[in-house]
Amino acid sequence: MTATYITLEYADLVLASLLLFLNAGLSIWLRLALERQFLIAAARMCVQLGLVSLVLKALFELVSPGLTALAVLVMILFAGREVMGRQERRFRGLWAYGLGTSSVLFAGTLVTLFALATQIQPDPWYHPRYAIPLLGMILGNTMTGIAVGLNTLTSQIKRERPAIETMLALGETRSTAFRPLVRTAVRNGLIPIVNAMSAAGVVSLPGMMTGQILSGVEPFEAIKYQILIMFLIAGGTGIGVVTAVHAGALRLSDNRHRLRLDRLADS
Asked: In whole angstroms, what is the distance from residue 89 CA to residue 83 CA?
């Protein structure tokens, strides 16, 4: 039996949006004060996705390495902004934005290029139809891991300041003093992707796999692609979190093995 491709009409989306209004109604009833945020977020999502669809259509037709690189750069810059926005205690100066952005850039591009050069192998290798969706999925999850890892690190260092300074005063190196905090921060940053992999297929069907199945792809083929994506996401998240947390720990100390909380902005 040949799979049937189901085309969604605008009326179908309007019908599905009633669930969002249900959430807004529950927010009003329970006095959560989230109804406005729900509606604004939904409107923003629709506008953003509509604009992205137009941009992607143009990129797919042009297949220009320069325009693809520009789109990638914009995605990374916005991902860095999201990392910065999720921090309770931000770094001072350019580090507030630069640390998360550089970590996302390093991890996301490294893993995406690895996938394009080995498993996917499009022609040309920079084809936006493959490069941009791959990078987008990797960036989204890597961004979350980095944000959680950095937030955990700065919160812990602030809380454990007396213990850290005592260890440093007794002659321990910054590496030794920060090691348990770095370990906890990295662990917390990696927990979301570990949970996502553990639940995939049993508790949840990941979005990419579900979308492919609904569009008519055979389930086993969809599963293979989903497994590949999950492996890539896990790799990108691991590289990004380890890079960001270690760089953050170095920033909050100096070569004389002193704690430098003055490099954090006031909360």
From this structure: 12
> Which residues neighbour 207 within 8 Å (Cβ) at sequence distance 6 or greater?
none
CB-based burial label for 152 (10 Å; 0-12, 13-18, 19+): buried
- Phi, psi torsion values for 37, nearest 5 degrees: -65, -40
pLDDT in tens, 150-180: 999 999 999 999 999 999 999 999 999 999 9
Residue 141, token pair as written in the block:
């999850």
Give the SS3 label for residue 153. helix
Sign of the Cα torsion 49, 51, 54, 55 reads negative
- CA dist 236 and 239 (Å) reads 5
The 3-state DSSP class for residue 264 equals strand
Distance CA 69, CA 55 (A): 13
Ordered by start, the domain boundaries in the chain are 1-62, 65-263
Stated as kind and residue range, the H or E segment containing 26 is: helix 10-30
Read off the pTM: 0.88
Nearest-angstrom CA–CA distance, 164 and 35: 44
Per-residue pLDDT at 246 exceeds 60 = yes
